[in-house]
Amino acid sequence: MEELQSTEVLDQEILEDARKKAFRVIKNADDAIKEAALTWERKIQSALGELRQRYAEKTQRDGGDIMGRLVQDKRRVRSVKIEALLKKAANDYLSSLDRKQLLALLERELSKRLDALEAEGAPIVEEDEPEVMLRMITEQEAEKILENAFFRKSKKKSKEKKFWTIVKPDIMFLSAGYFPALIVNTKKVKVTASIDDAKALLLEDKRAELTAALFGDAGLGSVA
What is the DSSP-derived secondary structure letter of residue 177? Predict the structure, then answer.
C-alpha cells in the first residue's frame, strides 16, 4: 500500500515538474513572441513614419506644383480677360469719335511718319511717284489728308501741286483692320498710316496706365 502511495506521489511530482517546465517553456516562448511583436511593431511604426514623411513631402511638393500651376493659369486667364477689355475699351473710344476726329487722327499718324522720313533725309517727293491705297476712307477725304500731311509746312499750301495717285487697294490691306487707314507706296519706301496700328501702339505704350485706370493697381501684376 505504501509502495502504491509512493508511486502516486512520485507521479504527481513528475507531473508537477513537467507542468512547471512546460510553463517555463510556454512563458519563454510567449515572452519571445511578445518581444518579436514589439520589435515588429517598432519596425512597422518606423516604416509607417517614413512613408508618412515621404507622402507628406510628395503631397507638399505636388501641392506646391499644382498651386503654382493654378496661380499661373489664373494669372493667364486674368491677363487674357484684361487684354480683351483693354482692346474693347480702345475700340469703344475710337468708335465714339465722329468722322472728323477719326480723320484728324489718321492725318496725324501720316504726318508723324512723313516727319520721320524727313528727319532721316529721305522725304517722299514728286519724283518718287507715290501711289496711295485707301481703307474705309473716301478719295475726297484722302486727298484732303494727303494735302495737309505733305504740304503742312508750306506757306503756299493751296498752290502746291498734287503728286500722288490713288490706286485700288489689295485684299490683304482691306481686311487688315477696322478703322480708316492709308498706305503711301513708292519705289523706295512704304508708309502706312493706320488708326488700328495707332491703337495697338497706344495699348503697348500705355498698357500699365490703362490697366490701372480700368482695374486699379491690383490689375497691374496680372498683365504679362
Answer: -
Note whether 103 and 75 are same-domain residues: no
Distance CA 5, CA 7 (A): 5
* CATH, residue 166: 3.30.1330
Q: Is residue 211 part of a domain?
A: no
Taking each helix axis from N to C end, the angle separating 195-205 and 2-96, rounded to the nearest 10 degrees, works out to 130
Q: What is the pTM of this model?
A: 0.58
87 in Cβ contact with 203 (< 8 Å): yes
Q: What is the mean pLDDT of each run of 10 residues along the chain (224 residues)?
A: 54 56 52 54 61 65 63 72 78 88 93 92 90 95 94 70 91 89 93 90 75 61 47
Do 194 and 106 have their domain in common? Answer: yes
Buried b (16+ CB within 10 A) or exposed e, 147-177: bbbbbeeeeeeeeeeeebeeeebeeebeeeb
